[in-house]
TrEMBL record:
<dbReference type="GO" id="GO:0008270">
    <property type="term" value="F:zinc ion binding"/>
</dbReference>
<comment type="similarity">
    <text>Belongs to the peptidase M1 family.</text>
</comment>
<keyword id="KW-0645">Protease</keyword>
<dbReference type="Pfam" id="PF17432">
    <property type="entry name" value="DUF3458_C"/>
</dbReference>
<dbReference type="Pfam" id="PF17900">
    <property type="entry name" value="Peptidase_M1_N"/>
</dbReference>
<dbReference type="InterPro" id="IPR037144">
    <property type="entry name" value="Peptidase_M1_pepN_C_sf"/>
</dbReference>
<dbReference type="InterPro" id="IPR024601">
    <property type="entry name" value="Peptidase_M1_pepN_C"/>
</dbReference>
<dbReference type="InterPro" id="IPR001930">
    <property type="entry name" value="Peptidase_M1"/>
</dbReference>
<dbReference type="InterPro" id="IPR027268">
    <property type="entry name" value="Peptidase_M4/M1_CTD_sf"/>
</dbReference>
<keyword id="KW-0378">Hydrolase</keyword>
<dbReference type="InterPro" id="IPR042097">
    <property type="entry name" value="Aminopeptidase_N-like_N_sf"/>
</dbReference>
<dbReference type="GO" id="GO:0006508">
    <property type="term" value="P:proteolysis"/>
</dbReference>
<comment type="function">
    <text>Aminopeptidase N is involved in the degradation of intracellular peptides generated by protein breakdown during normal growth as well as in response to nutrient starvation.</text>
</comment>
<dbReference type="InterPro" id="IPR012779">
    <property type="entry name" value="Peptidase_M1_pepN"/>
</dbReference>
<dbReference type="Pfam" id="PF01433">
    <property type="entry name" value="Peptidase_M1"/>
</dbReference>
<dbReference type="InterPro" id="IPR038438">
    <property type="entry name" value="PepN_Ig-like_sf"/>
</dbReference>
<feature type="domain" description="Peptidase M1 alanyl aminopeptidase C-terminal">
    <location>
        <begin position="568"/>
        <end position="898"/>
    </location>
</feature>
Amino acid sequence: MADTATPNVIRRADYAPPAFLIDTVALEFDLVPERTVVRNTMRVRRNPEAARAAHLELMGEQLEFVSAAIDGKPFANAHAHDHGLLLDNVPDQFELTLTSICNPAANTTLSGLYVSGGNFFTQCEAEGFRRITYFLDRPDVMATFTVTLRASKADYPVLLSNGNLLEEGDLPDGRHFARWEDPFRKPSYLFALVAGKLVALEERVKSGSGKEKLLQVWVEPHDLDKTRHAMDSLIHSIRWDEERFGLELDLDRFMIVAVSDFNMGAMENKGLNIFNTKYVLANPETATDTDFANIEAVVGHEYFHNWTGNRVTCRDWFQLSLKEGLTVFRDQEFSADMAGGATDEAARATKRIEDVRVLRQMQFAEDAGPMAHPVRPESYVEINNFYTMTVYEKGSEVVRMYQTLFGRDGFRKGMDLYFRRHDGQAVTCDDFRHALADANGRDLAQFERWYSQAGTPRVSVRTQYDAAQQRYSVTLTQGYGEAAPAARETQKGPLLIPFAIGLIGKDGRDLPLQLEGEAQAGKATTRVLEFTQTEQTFTFVNVAQEPLPSLLRNFSAPVIVEYDYSAQQLAFLLAHDSDPFNRWEAGQRLATRELLTLAGRAATGVPLQLDDSVVAAFARVLTDETLSPAFRELALMLPSEAYLAEQMAESNPAAVHAARQFVRKRLANALRSDWLNVYEQHRTPGAYEATPEASGHRALKNLALSYLAELDDPAEAVRLASAQYDAANNMTDRSAALSVLLNASAANGGSAEAQQALDDFYRRFEKEPLVIDKWFALQATQRGSAQRPVIDVVRRLMTHPAFNLKNPNRARSLIFSFCAANPAQFHAEDGSGYAFWADQVIALDAINPQVAARLARSLELWRRFTPALRDGMRAALEKVAAQVKSRDVREIVEKALA
């Protein structure tokens, strides 16, 4: 980590403590877009727990070195180079003052200090601070920061940094200043500053201990009317963290700032969170139900980092999931509690289903490819590439398993001990595991393998019922199947898997559970089995009838369960399972099995047929008014094309698309009257409400509309969609209607209704960048046809005046949407999608390597596709490998090609 030249591979095993520590930092900024002068005064001392170094080496990139002084005297033995600053013969303890210059206006990487929309912003995680000033830019160097900002008052009337405002005032020549202090030690990646023409929505609240706190959401003036939901989400987050974990806001104020040019979703800088506008701005006319839910979740996530990431941070970047996996778990629990409290299991299950869908579609795919890595990676080339689904989403599942094992109270005890031991420290995943183990009196040594082994575990299940003895045996076997080579080499032994199970009788009710050796059955009808061996048998006694097992309830571990349910058994579970997650899961298994069979037939040109029992199972869910609308919408949504293609021995996107469209059309025609009834019954007249209940009604209604568009004669759906578009008082209904019109148009070679709605949508919202992002994305993900391939639409839209490749949101809305969310069109047999992908990765690499690297991952699973598609993907990867220059992209494409 001390090598600022950044070696080709950085390994966790090579970690060494820093040779020097920095106790205090005083930063002074004279903010000018093309030439910002930074004066950095630090109290530096040798680390008594590290080997003595001959010199002090600080990281620095794209900086102009001006001067160095030690204890107030000029220091001549300072040598600047491309990756930092080398200082020879420094004393053991000293004050170091460095002056340097950076150019924020030219910083298109959006890492470090940059200008967006005429305002200054920063992004320092993971290694952006070294683009601002020379520093020991690593997470285990923690210091207190005082920051003075100076700038033109007319151009930058608002000056913000971390912590509490100490003073502000005017300076000569129309300039002004503000001085901020963060009293808590933090690593440099949590530093932030913002300067510009901004306005704030403010609230004052009292913490649980009675202290008054100032909350601010800062935005550009024209966006102030879209901040209420973000503020409410922040207040809810503060209250939830106090109630659930006893954690209070520790600063006098907490600020959120929205910026339209941002590589990530948001950043948890201490007390000054900087957000992508996508996760702040919302009102009914511009934001969908999904946007409202995402804003609440992301605001919660970044606020919860104040303790899990800021007060206790990572020792090194290999421990990234220590903060991210833990905080994703916390934001998931927050969202579930906001939807259903602690007791409404059906509402909580809806959130659980949504999270697991993302995990399976994206993280399981990552586990199967060349970028497979453990939750705690062993090595990396570019740390920005390891902000992954594995670190975040699988990491959150690892944290969830602690709560599954110990319950909410036991998990809270472990969290309390974790903070008592490590507040103000930079620690490791093992420190967190030890705190949970010690607080609950458990040995969790085996559990460490969840952090060090890559790949998605598979649990095969065998069952046997002895009617005479009334014994039911469940034998679990764990392994990894055909794991990717990158994952296989990390797998050392069996995991501790909390495996939740229930047994269902012939009447559809849960049976009492009594394991062999227990005196009597417990009250709970779900039992968490601690599965610790490669193969292990659990025997239930006093089982009066042969049950149907309900396996891995609430998705109690991030594994793939292999059990040969019949179609009739899956339909029974879909109708009766008391566990809402497994009820949904049964429907997904049933649909996946049928869709994969149909895809196999489509690939060989065999006519397609759908069994009536599948239609009947879907009909029961569609018409079951005892189920919540939100649950029914999720249960009736077919598995995605991308997920289905990954389940095939050779991915064939065209065959999957044909199969999925055939099933949608069959369900649409067979259940036409039911879809129409549901559409009418779940309208939400009156003023828009972003509540879970109202959102569920809209989701089910709009799903029904999308199915009606699959009818042999979609005229009725087009009429309904056109009327819904015209009458909509919210973005959820308007964008859903536009999507239906676009897809119905594709099926019929184009339509005037679709084009009129597209044109109207743009005219209405051309001054709303986030809505225009939706306009681009809807066109990039539309169905398309042989006569009108979507890639032609995408290429044309890239020349549109509203498109800007330098803006990450705009690039994601058009290019990423096409490449990642429209598989049937992207994987065209002529290879046009791959050629387009290569050109865009190369273009993005030149201006923003982080965004380019994320796009580069679209082809990392190329070896799993049919031979004709593989050849086109390999050629595109080789083209990119030959031309890109950044470490970010090279790591992705070289691993893919290796």
